[in-house]
Amino acid sequence: MHEGEIVSLIGPNGAGKTTAFNVITGIYPPSAGDIRFAGRSVVGLAPHRVCASGIGRTFQNLRIFPNLSVRDNVLVGFTLGNRASLLSALVRLPSQRREEQRLQAEAGALLRLLGLAEIEDQLARYLAYGDQRRVEIARALAAQPRMMMLDEPAAGMNPAEVDDLNALIRRMRDELGKTILLVEHHMNVVMDISDRVIVMDQGRKIAEGTPQEVKRDPRVIQAYLGSEAAA
Prior knowledge:
By secondary structure, this protein is an alpha/beta fold.
């Protein structure tokens, strides 16, 4: 990955895409090799330490807090950047109140960026699926990652929501300066926004290049459609 890129990781079901995400983010330990981010190895770090190093992620299956409001879901993401101590929070020192005001202001900015400000007081469980996806993205952004890893962010979205997602991913790169790696099955998303596409099959990388290069690669066609279609 190069800083500022949008890279899509694609492949048939079971190719190992989500497993790759889980290895990178410390959920699974690698059996061999190294994983380096910003010049240092992240192998052996707990997931929260990987997050603190600058890697944020969303999940294939939604991982929001259903009984918290939209705003409170986003505020959870600021935990790593909270500069107030436990003591200052317990006795409500002025420094803690200033920190709370700062985090509330930053949460408000994220909610506006993702189009969630009008529903910020609603419980997350009552939101439409596309809105829940945006809540999860906003919470991941709250941790101030340098790289965002999005695992099937368009899953379950209708065409209008997919178009909005494409615009959001571009804004995350262009306005927030994020490097983005995404796993996605919606090929219109992949082909529309990717600078580069990496294709996996059975746990291995079989192709890499621009969207147009990958789309024409016989190995990719075979992996998706079988050898007769490739021929």
